[in-house]
Amino acid sequence: MLKGKKVAILGDRDGIPGPAIEECVKSAGADVVFSTTECFV
Amino acid sequence: MDLENQARIKDLTDKYGKEDLIVILGGAEAEASGLAAETVATGDPTFAGPLSGVSLGLKAYHMFELKDDVDAKIYDEQIGMMEMVLNVDEIVEEVKTYRK
User: Which residues in B33-56 are b (16+ Cβ under 10 Å) and which e?
Assistant: First the structure.
């Protein structure tokens, strides 16, 4: 499902941060076009 | 969802189109994750940001839902710990709601 898709990542400092999601989706062949880590505090 | 990020998502949708772009969330709570999924699907429900009244129609998934799509070793290294401490079922159920 991820292969060849453009992916925008909204990570969470208290959950899963952006860079961790990036590592995962890149392994599935997705193209990361935006990645950030939000902080809800 | 961060107002600046709403603007970025809007720009990316204009650039790539909603068919090719998906949003992946890493939220720690069901409510916040659902709010982000709703914002990119049907618009900002709090009417605070650039996506107020803007229905982008994007599909959002939580990282937990994509476990089977990614390399198992990398998933374990990067996500494994949070999978143990967060309420995975509750988060996934909430995020799914906004893809129907």
Answer: bbbbbbbbbbbbeeeebbbeebeb
Tokens matching residue B35:
């709010």
Task: Report the alpha-carbon distance of residue B67 to residue B79 in Å, rounded.
Answer: 9
- Nearest chain B Cα to A23, which residue? B74
Pairing of strands A31-38, B21-25: unpaired
Q: Which residues pair with A11 in a beta bridge?
A: A37
**Cα of B94 to nearest chain A Cα, Å:** 15
What are the chain B neighbours of A28 within 8 Å (beta carbons)? 66, 69-71
Q: pTM of this prediction?
A: 0.96
pLDDT for the residue A34: 98
ipTM value greater than 0.85: yes
